């Protein structure tokens, strides 16, 4: 800081030059590099009007570049005119890169009043990118204390908001210590912490900085912005930060976006509507610009300062050079998997963490390295984007489609990494109570399927309760979609358990604070929740086959948790699900139920054998109630489908047991056999077809003919029709006196 002050003896800012930057004078002489103008010239019928605005902006920038003395706004019509010009053009289409150096210097030099400086800073809306050199030059003005503290604070807020629009960051990173020195100012501290959070690399973490943050925390108390920076330091160097920090925070930093973010969105949207020609590059020179809102403009990997002409030549030597040195490998040059393997310890992630979501190689890197700092940066960026930019009300169809695309991209990244994002979980918990169940339905429910494991009390209030309200009041299709999402959520939790079964020391296990008993409890609560909403839904919708399919599909996962996922838990479906499936009019549902009961039997038998073998002390044992409920269901199924005794022998409290006198009042002739595999409403169609094939001349459809050997033939006929669930159930759960040869 003292060195920088000595260089300011002439009361001029540091002049920082970059080989890729074109000066304002060259731009004014005709060497304009504002690519937006050329696009507009091709597409707009009002070229003269555009030229007039361009000339007005040039005159305004020339005026502000040459202004020397303190000028009063009230007494100077020229100043008012040029200030209005800058504001109107900035709000309409944004400012070109060359204008930032002039406007930042004049706003921070103290030559004009705070009112003018404030209006200038609020007008700094980028049309494309912001040159790093302009930012570094403006930072040097903070050394000479020419501007007021309010202007300094506004400048920091602007810098945080447009951080992703700065074309390069290397020189800005070099000023890390300078920014750190501003932490002593209580008003600026939250915004300085925010900026440092965006700039921090591992080499920035030093013991003296940690001591300084701890001193500030002791002085100011537990401030969220200090905790954020300390958390990042601890992830980079856990051996240096030994204190215990609170768990994940909902919000680390104050809202710093001020008037800029909304204006940037408006400018980008207006350019999108008026420009059918492809737009200039927005964040770097290596890839075409995304025509999306800010969440999508951040998804482009920023280009490094490498000269584009030498890029191909550099790539040939990148692997050897970066592998043998401590330098970083630019991620925008990462093109192949072999490059990733050779430079995996020399990669530095881009400032725009959103670009990671669209790059499979960087997602591979996250999977391999497990660098918690990367996850923290990604969660921070995603949390900011989801919580502040995505809303359930949208202005037009384009924004709605962009919102859907963004959520779809987040979901695909979660699938790739095979884990949910905590920031996405927080977004869902905040948004589900406000969701109408229609906007981005597919994307939201897919994101629900990747919610990480957490306590039941948290999930009940934030997930289950709002989802249940929508579930009961929405269409049949929505109910099926929710059940499908909850089935995938269960499968993702079970897969997570299998992956981490033999790695209890994994950091993620500790961070989730998830023990085996905790996992069992959370999974059991999810299954109970699905059982409850399924029972109610079947009553509301009058037992439709379509809904029953999705319910039974969920229980196909539940019935195999012990053997397939090694989770010591089995929960039987409630009677409100079992009996509608058993008495279904559709053979698909009945066949599905038979297969589920077969898998329940297989899992329970395996659990009982392990329990009886006593080879190892089992931490969990299935309760006798589980075995009892299974036996009750089996008695009901065998009584219905095979022995025709369900009305007499079903012992379940909600079962089919009825008095013979009551059954006779139904006037059904053979009520005892009403639900066996011949007369069951789901099976009678097969019985008719079998009779037509076995006795083609008999048109009386005498079902009593199916007995003895014909019974066995009928079973083989059913099996040949694809009823594999019925086959394995009968073979495993029914002891037949006679067997077909």
TrEMBL record:
InterPro entries: CENP-I (IPR012485)
A matching Pfam family: CENP-I
Polar residues composition bias: residue spans: 40-49
Gene Ontology BP annotations: CENP-A containing chromatin assembly; mitotic sister chromatid segregation
Subcellular location: Chromosome, Centromere; Nucleus
UniProt keyword list: Centromere, Chromosome, Nucleus
Cellular component per GO, a single term: inner kinetochore
Top-rank taxon, per record: Eukaryota
Segments for region (Disordered): 1-55
Principal place of residence: nucleus
Family: Belongs to the CENP-I/CTF3 family.
Record PANTHER family: CENTROMERE PROTEIN I (PTHR48208:SF2)
Protein name: Centromere protein I
Lineage, highest ranks first: Eukaryota, Metazoa, Chordata, Craniata, Vertebrata
């Amino acid at each position: 800081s003292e060195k920088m002050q000595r260089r300011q003896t002439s009361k001029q800012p540091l002049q920082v030059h970059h080989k890729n930057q074109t000066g304002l004078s060259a731009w004014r002489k005709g060497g304009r590099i504002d690519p937006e103008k050329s696009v507009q010239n091709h597409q707009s019928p009002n070229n003269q009007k555009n030229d007039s605005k361009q000339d007005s902006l040039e005159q305004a920038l020339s005026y502000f570049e040459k202004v020397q003395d303190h000028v009063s706004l009230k007494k100077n019509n020229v100043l008012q005119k040029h200030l209005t010009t800058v504001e109107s053009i900035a709000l309409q289409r944004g400012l070109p890169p060359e204008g930032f150096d002039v406007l930042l210097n004049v706003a921070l030099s103290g030559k004009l009043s705070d009112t003018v400086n404030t209006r200038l800073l609020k007008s700094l809306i980028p049309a494309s990118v912001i040159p790093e050199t302009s930012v570094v030059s403006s930072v040097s003005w903070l050394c000479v204390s020419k501007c007021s503290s309010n202007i300094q604070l506004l400048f920091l807020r602007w810098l945080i908001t447009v951080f992703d629009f700065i074309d390069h960051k290397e020189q800005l990173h070099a000023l890390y210590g300078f920014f750190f020195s501003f932490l002593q100012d209580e008003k600026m501290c939250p915004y300085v912490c925010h900026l440092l959070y965006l700039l921090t690399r591992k080499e920035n973490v030093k013991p003296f900085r940690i001591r300084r943050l701890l001193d500030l925390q002791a002085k100011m108390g537990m401030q969220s912005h200090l905790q954020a920076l300390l958390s990042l330091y601890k992830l980079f160097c856990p051996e240096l930060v030994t204190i215990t920090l609170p768990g994940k925070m909902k919000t680390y930093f104050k809202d710093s976006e001020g008037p800029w973010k909304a204006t940037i969105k408006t400018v980008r949207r207006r350019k999108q509507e008026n420009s059918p020609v492809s737009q200039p590059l927005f964040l770097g020179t290596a890839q075409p610009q995304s025509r999306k809102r800010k969440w999508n403009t951040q998804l482009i990997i920023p280009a490094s300062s490498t000269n584009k002409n030498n890029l191909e030549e550099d790539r040939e030597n990148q692997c050897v050079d970066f592998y043998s040195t401590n330098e970083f490998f630019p991620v925008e040059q990462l093109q192949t998997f072999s490059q990733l393997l050779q430079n995996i310890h020399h990669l530095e992630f881009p400032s725009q963490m959103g670009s990671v979501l669209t790059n499979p190689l960087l997602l591979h890197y996250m999977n391999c390295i497990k660098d918690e700092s990367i996850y923290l940066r990604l969660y921070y960026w995603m949390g900011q984007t989801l919580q502040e930019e995505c809303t359930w009300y949208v202005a037009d169809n384009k924004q709605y489609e962009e919102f859907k695309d963004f959520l779809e991209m987040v979901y695909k990244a979660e699938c790739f990494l095979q884990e949910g994002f905590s920031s996405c979980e927080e977004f869902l918990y905040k948004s589900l109570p406000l969701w109408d169940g229609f906007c981005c339905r597919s994307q939201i429910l897919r994101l629900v399927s990747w919610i990480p494991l957490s306590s039941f009390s948290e999930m009940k209030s934030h997930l289950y309760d709002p989802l249940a309200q929508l579930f009961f009041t929405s269409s049949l299709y929505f109910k099926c979609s929710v059940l499908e999402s909850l089935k995938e959520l269960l499968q993702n939790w079970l897969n997570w358990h299998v992956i981490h079964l033999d790695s209890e020391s994994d950091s993620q296990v500790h961070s989730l604070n998830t023990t085996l008993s905790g996992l069992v409890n959370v999974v059991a609560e999810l299954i109970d929740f699905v059982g409850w909403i399924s029972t109610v839904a079947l009553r509301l919708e009058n037992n439709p086959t379509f809904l029953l399919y999705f319910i039974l599909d969920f229980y196909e996962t539940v019935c195999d948790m012990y053997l397939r996922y090694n989770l010591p838990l089995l929960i039987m479906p409630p009677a409100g699900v079992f009996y509608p499936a058993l008495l279904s009019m559709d053979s698909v549902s009945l066949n599905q139920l038979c297969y589920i009961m077969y898998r329940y039997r297989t899992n329970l038998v395996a659990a009982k054998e392990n329990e009886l073998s006593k080879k190892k002390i089992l931490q969990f044992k299935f309760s006798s109630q589980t075995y009892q409920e299974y036996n009750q269901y089996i008695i009901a199924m065998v009584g219905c489908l095979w022995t025709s005794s369900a009305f007499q022998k079903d012992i379940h409290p909600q079962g089919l047991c009825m008095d013979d006198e009551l059954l006779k009042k139904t006037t059904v002739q053979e009520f005892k056999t009403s639900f066996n595999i011949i007369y069951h409403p789901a099976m009678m169609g097969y019985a008719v077809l079998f009779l037509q094939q076995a006795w083609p001349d008999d048109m009386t459809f005498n079902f009593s003919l199916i007995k003895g050997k014909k019974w066995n033939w009928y079973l083989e006929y059913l099996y040949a029709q694809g009823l594999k669930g019925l086959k394995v159930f009968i073979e495993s759960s029914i002891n037949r006196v006679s067997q077909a040869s």
